[in-house]
Specification:
It is a single chain. This protein is of the alpha+beta class. Helices cover 29% and strands 33% of the residues. It contains two helices and six strands. It has a six-stranded mixed sheet. Strand 5 and strand 6 form a beta hairpin. The radius of gyration is 16 Å and the shape is globular. The N and C termini lie far apart (42 Å).
Length: 106
């Protein structure tokens, strides 16, 4: 019984850690980058069909550790016309109608 309770508690903890993170799939329509970046003006990405919760698209914070790697992945997907999956923090870290990118996958 204790083993089941511990397993349930761990599963609940993992679920709560991912709360607010959703995956959005599609082709990139536009990308915008700024020379002097910030969270608001760093990298913006719009899909051809942005989800309603992220109607303005997605942003990559300028302070991200792997910003160059993520940007390169986004650019490669855009140039190749390949669909991409963006996991975004839909509610906790929004700026206006844009959602913060957590990770991307080709």
């Amino acid at each position: 019984m204790l083993k089941k309770a511990i397993t349930f508690a761990l599963a609940l903890t993992m679920f709560n850690a991912m709360a607010g993170m959703t995956n959005h799939n599609g082709e990139i329509a536009n990308m915008r980058t700024w020379v002097s970046g910030s969270d608001t003006y760093g990298v913006w990405v719009s899909l051809k069909n942005n989800p309603s919760i992220c109607s303005g698209g997605f942003f990559l914070p300028d302070t991200s550790d792997n910003k160059q790697l993520v940007y390169s992945t986004l650019l490669a997907a855009h140039l190749s016309g390949k669909a991409i999956m963006i996991q975004a923090a839909d509610s906790a870290y929004k700026i206006g109608d844009r959602c913060r990118i957590n990770y991307v996958m080709l």
